[in-house]
């Protein structure tokens, strides 16, 4: 299966609000975090919003980036 490509302009629509799925980008991959209770309404711990590239922000996270392994990769991010 070929992965869909997302630009920043496209990714912003997947912000988890108003019934939209919640997608985030990290190091060129796009993850679907929609089913996570930690991403309810497209917000994570009030600091992060879905629909964005969080590569730089995850450096500051108190958890390891391996937590992304439990979410499906649904595309590639082209900035």
What is the H/E order?
EHEEEEE
Can you say what the CATH homologous superfamily is? Cytochrome b5-like heme/steroid binding domain
- Major sheet description: 4 strands, mixed
The outline comes out as globular
Low-confidence stretches: none
Provide the helix percentage. under 10%
Rounded Rg = 11 Å
Number of domains: 1
Q: Which percent range describes the beta-strand content?
A: 25-35%
Strand order of the biggest β-sheet: 1-6-3-2
Mean pLDDT: 88
Briefly, what CATH class? Alpha Beta
CATH topology: Flavocytochrome B2, Chain A, domain 1
Written description of the protein model:
It contains 1 helix and 6 strands; from the N terminus they run E-H-E-E-E-E-E. It is mostly beta strands. The chain has one domain: Flavocytochrome B2, Chain A, domain 1, CATH 3.10.120. The protein has a 4-stranded mixed sheet. The longest helix has 4 residues, at 8-11.
Summary, kept brief:
With 79 residues, this protein is mostly beta strands. It contains one helix and six strands.
